[in-house]
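Lab notes, practical 5.
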Amino acid sequence: MEVYEGEKDKLLDHEYDGIRELDNHMPFWWLWLFFITIAISVFYLLFYQVLGWGQTQIEEYEQEIAEAEAKFGGSEEQEPAASFTWQISEEEADIQAGKQMFNGSQLCYTCHGKEGQGMVGPNLTDNQWIHGCSPKEIAQSIIEGFPQKGMLAYGSGSKISNEKVQQIVSYMATLQGTEPADAKAADPNRAEPCTEGPFASSD
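Output from the prediction step:
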């Protein structure tokens, strides 16, 4: 190994396989960068952990959860669907809210059509029903969906409250007997006529 004249006094004694180390000092900018990182770490420790002036990741998470719950509603457990009293609301506000979800966020219209005439999914305007026609049975169909048939729970897979499901069911009740154009024929091998209740008003 060639050693330059100006480096002989920096050459250390230890050697390995002909390789010897020069006692070079670190550049000043590198040392200052190291000192700055130490200062930042001390400041970070005092600011977040010791003095508590800044929010920790957990505190930021909890704050964002609280803000989301305030904006979109809480995540508290709602009454089980099985014990909920399912009924048809005749309030216009409920029906319009149900219509908005049917044709919007819950994506019911993508399979049943905007007028409930049936597309990939069954016609919802006649009195032929495959999975029961009571408000409770229809609500249960919405809540659980039929994933094997391509229908997600709650239509879109996005969970909503029992009250909102009931608004959708209430809107569906208004579709009964409307006889939209190009209504899909019922499947005679699966559908059965609804003989009583709010969904037995046509045919």
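Observations recorded by the TA: Residues 28-50 form the longest helix (23 residues). The chain has a mean pLDDT of 87.
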